[in-house]
Amino acid sequence: MADPPPTKFVEDNEPEVAIEDVGPAAKRLTITISSEVIGRKLTESLGALANEATLPGFRRGKIPRRLLEKRFGSAVRSEAKDQLIADAYAKAIEANAIKPIGEPEPSEATRALKIEEGEPLTFSLEVEVVPEFELPALDAIEIKKPLLEITQEHIEAHLNRQQHRLGTATRIEGGFQAGDRVSAHVTVTAEGQDKPLIEDDDALIICPGAEEGGRGPVVGLMIDDLARRLSGCRVGQLLTIDATGPDAHELEALRGKKLVLSVRITSAQRIEPATVAELVEKFSLGTQENLREQIKLVLQHQRDHEQAAAMRQQISEHLLANVDFELPRKLSAVQVARNLEGRRLELLYQGLAPEEVETRLAETRAEAETQARNRLKLFFLLQKLAEHFKVEVSEQEVNGRLAEMAAQHGQRPEQLRTELARTGRLPELARMVMEHKATDRVIANATITEVSAEEWNVMIRTKDSAGRPDAAPKSPGAKTTAKTKKKASASKEKKRS
pTM for this structure? Predict the structure, then answer.
């Protein structure tokens, strides 16, 4: 699509704007601010200064302009230039319907510009923009719905996790093993540099076990042989770990860099699991049978979320497979961070414990660049899908999602809201609700085939995950009874007929 011609609003002294493509989803805006606008701004700025400034021998508001110019002119012009550029840029993107991603990057030449009364100012900014593309047909997409049953095995596994989560912590000095909680002062520096890129005075490190292959995260970076490195350590010891910054990290300064992690172990704890009787008493459930029944309800709720996530994931994969567009050459740090926060909320919504969420996020950061770019691509696809369906999200819907997430993690809704507001994640929660509503609209018109948990797990194992934005969610144990299989088979027969 051709760029619109330069937009001119001479009668209103609006900026003149010329737009050109400078790469995939990137534009250069060359903007000219008229001398009249500059003159008015300088007069306004000096007038405001005259009312505020004080100089010996002059009453407030009575300082001659030439003296103000001599004493404060450089600072006034610099501040006025920044304000003029910001205002002109805002008007330019609004007038030309440009949808920027993040903040524009001024060139060195733009930074060095100076404004003079009676002279126009021309400057250029490069900005990444929302890619342009069309959605594919959304009717009768074929998707699979996994039928997942909660078994006694799942209940006991969840009970075991709760016993460890709510157990008694005992301080240890060394001999770390799977599940131990290590606190450390961690700094991350790029090789050959002194200033840390990341510094955490109280980083929590969970010692990984055989199930994790000995891999685990340290300040969000996945370390392949973490279990081996920790096994011989003691409190007070300094551990040095070499790593490579993931290409999909939200901090651009880390991407692709050789990193050195300095880990000073400050304390460590081992969890003595709580007894089942202690959990019964803690939750005031009366009997162990009541406790297991409560766990079953929790797992069924989690299963429902994972089932919905599995179907939404298939819609996402359909969009990725059927829409092609170019992304900005450089992954925007703002977008990467936003996607990671969205991923965090999605995992918390599915009921994962905070420690497991951090592990999943570290795995996400370690993705290949193709997967990372597909995850960013999906962000734009789901935004477009929401626009297509004119999806709106109400405050009531956000509060409802907050209440669900708080209940899953044993928090009060107002406590979770305060935490999300403090960390700037509330807008991401609203975005997650919007994306769910948009994909659910597609699912409502999809051709759905029910499959057993065994079939579903085979599909996950055999499906090539290269380039996919996410692995399909797994069920809580993925066990299926003959009754469920029969239901799935009957459903498929019905589809065939």
Answer: 0.72
| Same-domain status, 293 and 259 | no
Report DSSP letters for 456-496, one per residue. HHHHHHHS--TT-SSPPPPPSS----HHHHHHHHHHHHHHH
Q: What is the pLDDT of residues 365-374, one digit of tens each?
A: 887 777 777 8
CATH for 232? 3.10.50.40
Report the run of H or E that residue 83 belongs to, with start and end. Answer: helix 65-95
How is 306-329 classified by DSSP, letter by letter? HHHHHHHHHHHHHHHHH---PPPS
Which two structure tokens, joined as six digits, stand for 283?
Answer: 């939750």
On the question of pLDDT at 477 being above 90, the answer is: no
Is the CB of residue 456 less than 8 Å from the CB of residue 475?
yes
Question: What are the residues facing 271 on neighbouring strands?
Answer: 169
Number of domains in the chain: 3
Contact 183, 196 (CB under 8 A): no
Q: How would you list the strands of the sheet with 26-33, edge to edge?
A: 16-23, 26-33, 121-128, 105-106
Indicate the residue type of 134: E
- The CA R_g of the chain, rounded to the nearest whole Å, is 29
Query: Last residue of some domain: 215, 237, 272?
Result: 272
Mean of per-residue pLDDT scores for the chain: 83
Largest CA distance in the chain: 97
Note whether 85 and 147 are same-domain residues.
no
Distance CA 166, CA 273 (A): 7
Find the DSSP H helices in 323-368: 333-349, 354-365
Cβ proximity of 295 and 455 under 8 Å: no
